[in-house]
Specification:
By secondary structure, the protein is of the alpha/beta class. It folds into two domains: 5-175 and 265-272, 3-Layer(aba) Sandwich (Rossmann fold); 197-248, Alpha-Beta Plaits (2-Layer Sandwich). The chain contains seven helices and eleven strands. Strands 1, 2, 4, 6, 7, 8 and 11 form a seven-stranded mixed beta sheet that branches. Helix 1 (16-32) crosses helix 4.
């Protein structure tokens, strides 16, 4: 099958999903001798218009895993504004060393409903957004080797297919409920209303956190104020050069501690053809 254009489309608050998307699309572009374009829909402005593809396109479509599924505040955009029109797609999710649960299944079903033809799929472990104690440094060199091998196999499948390649079998239940976070005592915890705090002794009110918030939740005129919906993506914490942003919600911190205690063993990446 002839591919004319490769796209890396991704939502990536802390940058790890972006790394995976760019590396994979780059390897596929080299393997298939095609031009490659990046489509970053992380910020609200980028989601004001639809992403429309066509037959002859190959789209590497990537999101992180939130509570075992595709981030719920981003899923409606993918469902309503990402149009395949017969394009091939490789759905990819990243996860912070706990489990990708049903996120890959949900992303795959969504893309199929939007008229994408799935070629392969993958789940890659990356540093957890909440803590450096889980999968720190990933994707690392071993992950890159696995990613290159995945790209080669996917490219080979496309080249050898006379028509549309057979879709991969992907585990999981796209309709499953979200993972319920637990604290250090093993009991469910609730931190939906948690919002980032600001150390005013460090903050210079430069506005970077507000301009880069994927939900547009932070007040640009007063970055200590977060009037909008915070999804705990940690972008503001990660990008602040003064280390002025942090979370102090007790339930949230208990969940982070539970993750660190129980999911430190490196998880393997998974690929599907």
């Amino acid at each position: 099958m002839n591919i004319k254009q490769i796209y890396a489309a991704y939502w990536s608050p802390t940058g790890n999903t972006r790394k995976i998307a760019r590396m994979l699309a780059g390897e596929l572009a080299e393997e298939l001798d095609c031009p490659m374009e990046l489509l970053d829909f992380t910020l609200p402005k980028a989601r004001e218009s639809a992403l429309t593809f066509s037959s002859g396109d190959l789209v590497v479509f990537c999101t992180p895993t939130y509570a075992g599924k595709v981030p719920n505040k981003i899923l409606p955009y993918i469902q309503e504004q990402v149009l395949g029109n017969g394009a091939l797609a490789i759905p990819v999710v990243t996860f912070g060393n706990r489990n990708f649960d049903n996120s890959l299944a949900e992303l795959s079903v969504t893309l199929k409903k939007n008229d994408f033809q799935l070629v392969a799929a993958a789940a890659f472990a990356c540093r957890h957004a909440f803590t450096d104690e889980l999968a720190f440094g990933r994707p690392d060199t071993e992950d890159e080797t696995e990613l290159k091998d995945f790209a080669k196999k996917a490219a080979c499948k496309i080249r050898e297919s006379e028509g549309v390649p057979l879709a991969p079998e992907i585990p999981g239940d796209s309709d499953a409920p979200y993972y319920i976070p637990k604290g250090v005592d093993g009991q469910p915890v609730q931190f939906l209303k948690a919002k980032p705090q600001t150390d005013l002794s460090k903050c210079t009110n430069c506005g970077a956190c507000a301009r880069q918030c994927p939900m547009g939740a932070i007040d640009l005129k007063n970055v200590a104020n977060t009037p909008g919906t915070c999804i705990k993506c940690q972008r503001c914490v990660r990008i602040c050069t003064k280390h002025a942003k942090y979370f102090d919600d007790k339930a949230f911190l208990s969940h982070v501690a539970m993750l660190e205690e129980n999911f430190s063993e490196p998880k393997e990446n998974q690929t599907f053809f």
